Amino acid sequence: MISITLHINKVRAGSKPARGGFSSGSKPAREETPFVRAGCLPACFVVIIMLWLGGLTHIVCAQSLLPDTICGQTGERSYFVSGWSNSTYTWTVEGGLLLPPGNTESITVDWTGVPPGNYTITVVEHSADGCSGDPYSDIVHIFPAPEISFSLCTPITSRDAIPYSLRGGIPLNGIYSGTGVQSGIFYPGQVPPIQDTVIIWYYYTNSFGCPDADSAILQLHPAANHTCGNPFTDVRDGTDYSTVQLGNRCWMAENLNYGTHISSTTHHMNNCQPEKYCYDETTANCTNFGGLYQWDELMDYQDVDTVQGLCPPGWHISTETEWQELITLFQDAAHAGTALKEGGSSGFQALLSGFWAAPGLWSYGASDTTLNSALFWTSSSTSTGKALAHGMNSVVNETGYTTSVSTYSSSWSNALPVRCVKD
Fold it and tell me: Is the peptide bond before 359 cis (omega within 30 degrees of 0)?
């Protein structure tokens, strides 16, 4: 006698049916949505057909999982279903390469070289007694991985340098990490004394939620053993600078000369490459008089009043407060110029070597026959697009109008020299 009993069990939302599964990776417990096989009802019903033939029982429904998501061309990934024992499977993979044997409940797909897009994986289960289920398909989303590059804008520093913002990761708005890094700021003093290099990581996640990372090496030099009044050597390029103690500050007694000489027809760019102009497009003028810098380049694109900028590690761009202290040491702004200029009593040795005025005028250099002048940047901005600068001049063949130190609110686009102050 043969009897057929049809049992229809409704699966509650969030519960797990008896068998089945289609997923990538490992096989954790799943909350799944039933799919239809031959003889099964759709939606959230599991149909159990019991054929009383010597007690043989088949469970003929399985389930699906959420679609797979891949970031970039990640190579091989595994997928599986949980069906009835002794079943075989027919898999169809769109886009990717189905690796052998490809007819069991678990498969491996190679997605190498497959461009971003949506691709379908279809599986059909065939039971040992010849019953085939309906095809079940699911989607594999391949999203583009982020394309990042990372080269530190400040790859060399020293332990006595003030903390500074890390830059150089592209695209912008990623996350920096590493020893001594907090919220994107590097604190040299937090690095253990035994380390002379630090690995800095840059992490970025694109709009598809796909992450990537890259790293760069930061060189950390010991704090400089320097006494003000003696020459100071920039660890970045080996340039030596004269220094002078003025009040309680140690100043450079010559203009900063750091970076690559570029033509004044090219605007300084935020490209992690320190750049400078040389007066009258002559490289020797940088050697003799220092570089000329547009303000945002000099500041390393940070509008902060006390910042290292392009100054050597352990030094910073002079602030307005420090300039006012300097001027006061030599009476007042009307008279301090005499002491601060080259040959003056202060030892500051301000060179009246000119500057570059946007949009392209070399002004009042040493070869000018009417006026020799210099303007020195401070790190103190006055408004968007302008910062304070201090000027000294000498009227050729005149002596009565050259004693002062003037103050200007100068456009960031002008290129001026700078004096650095020791931290």
Answer: yes
